[in-house]
Amino acid sequence: MTDVVLDGVEKVYPGGQVAVRNVRLRINAGELFVLLGPSGCGKSTLLRMIAGLEEITAGDLWLDGTLANDLPPRERNVAMVFQDGALYPHRTVKGNMMFPLEVAGDDRAEAGAKVTELARALGISAMIDRRPDTLSGGQRQRAAIGRALVREPRLFLMDEPLSSLDAALRTELRIEIAGLVRATGTTTVYVTHDQVEAMTMADRMAVLRDGTVEDVGTPEEIYADPATVFVAAFLSSPPINLLRATLWAVEGEGLVLDFGAQRLSVPWDDPRVSSLISHHGETVIVGIRPDTLAPIAPGSPAPPGTVLSGRVRALEFHGHEWLAYAEAGIPTVDAAEVGRPPAPENRPAPRTGLRDRLRELVGGGGGEEPAEEHEGHHRRTDLVFRIPPGRRPNRGDHCAMRVDLDRVLFFGADGRRVGSPRS
Ligand code: ADP
Q1: C-alpha distance across the termini of the chain, in Å
Q2: Average pLDDT value over all residues in the chain
């Protein structure tokens, strides 16, 4: 079993495109490690650098304690599976799976037995004598996985291997792949943009954005305790409510989250108060997952500072539940915009006008500027919450929701988590 260490790894493509920035990761021996992030965030580039298919611009790659930056791909003993499997078209499934063993000069009878056993584990025994063009997409991917695993690589790299398959097959294969690589104990790095795939398969995972690692941990750790607004939003389906508030310390009440039209309060004895209090008077981003909001009957008692309300604008039926969208008059933020340096055209223009100079003279500074103008990512949309089937409100109903404050996530205006139990 092999461990992989990436120490300050960077990739700048010849055209100047920075694809990966200062990535520091340790992938433990035997782990199924997932690289998760949106398209273009640098996942494939990182995987290809581990495979030796892409040169590392800066930083070090260590495989089992050996510096591997300049190690040719064939000496790394890694196997890779891509989205489209890429089998040899004129060889049968068995021929494809035998190929790496033939190249290595293995005994034919032993190789044949190994292939037969692996084909059985992959559920493709019945089509072992067929050519790739007679197989379904799922069968082809199984054969490609078989061909990659048959020579017992020390490292198994998979780049979106399921993304061209339909939903039912993806579910079936992800369970099988995870089971198979765990059974063989092969250290595996798996690239995907699909949060469900990442959460269900990973022992640990890294969430990437714009070539940098935003968070690393087990799926449970990252879901419960995301490092940034971006990570919280990427791992939330239905989407997390990201609300903009101003935080005030109020004697006798606690830390008040002032949403303008509504407010919540965090009691003084909440363990997060000690880190939140430094944001007194500042903008914070409050993350509330839909399952953290429980609709309550109108007029039912609830402790003050624990309820948000809105008028139901839209309802969606999802079979096991309804999702409701309520207009609550609360400003929300777009996770894609938070924590990212503003594009040059979005940067506020330098203040040179008479109005600006007057404002400075009378001491207004920048503090009075509304968030809409200053931050460029201020929106006013709905609160999303779940409703069990059979309890559906009607459109236009006024709905009150109890907020489970213990599960609310707090972020600074820069998108970084405040009051994380991990920090
Ligand atoms: P992902 O796998 O997350 O979709 P990639 O690693 O493929 O992302 O790409 C990361 C960034 O690097 C993207 O902006 C992409 O356009 C760029 N990129 C990828 N390959 C090349 C290349 N060969 N030359 C120049 N830029 C590239």
Answers
A1: 31
A2: 88
Instruction: Report which protein residue has its CA nearest ligand 1's atom 24.
Output: 13
The tens digit of pLDDT for each residue in 370-382 reads 333 334 344 557 8
10, 13, 212: residue to mutate for ligand 1 pocket, most atoms within 8 A of CB: 13
Q: How far is the CA of 39 from the centre of ligand 1 (A)?
A: 9
How confident is the model at residue 151, as a pLDDT? Answer: 84
CB 283 within 8 A of CB 316: no
State the Cα–Cα distance between residues 340 and 165, nearest whole angstrom: 33
Distance 14 CA to ligand 1 centre (A): 11
Q: How many residues does the chain have?
A: 423
Instruction: Using the atom order of ligand 1, give the atom closest to the CA of residue 44.
Output: 2
Question: 112: which residues sit within 8 A by CB, 6+ positions away?
Answer: 94, 98
Separation of CA 41 and ligand 1 centre (Å): 8
- Which of 14, 5, 18 has its CA nearest to residue 59? 5
Eight-state DSSP code of residue 339? T
| Sign of the C-alpha dihedral computed for residues 97, 99, 102 and 103 taken in this order | negative
Give me the average pLDDT of each 10-residue run along the chain (423 residues): 94 96 97 97 97 97 96 92 86 94 92 92 92 91 90 92 86 89 93 96 97 97 96 94 96 94 94 95 97 87 90 92 93 90 50 41 35 41 86 89 96 93 68
Nearest alpha carbon to residue 80 among 202, 188, 197: 188
- Nearest-atom number in ligand 1 for the CA of 35 is 3
Measure 233 CA to ligand 1 centroid, in angstroms: 23
Cα 234 to Cα 187, 192, 254, 405: the distances in Å are 25, 12, 30, 21
Instruction: Give the model's pLDDT for residue 167.
Output: 86
Query: 40 CA to middle of ligand 1, Å?
Result: 6
| Atom 13, ligand 1: residue with shortest CA distance | 40
pLDDT in tens, 362-372: 333 333 333 33
| Cα–Cα distance measured from residue 103 to residue 91, given in angstroms and rounded to the nearest whole number | 14
Asked if residues 261 and 330 have their Cβ atoms less than 8 Å apart, the reply is yes
Helix (H, G, I), strand (E, B) or coil at 137: helix
pTM to 2 decimals? 0.87
Residue 18 CA: nearest ligand 1 atom is: 12
Question: Using CA atoms, how far apart are residues 114 and 72, in angstroms rounded to an integer?
Answer: 27
What is the model's pLDDT at position 84? 77
Counting from 1 in the atom list of ligand 1, the atom nearest the Cα of 208 is: 3
Around ligand 1, the residues with Cβ closer than 6 Å are 13, 15, 17, 19, 37, 39-45
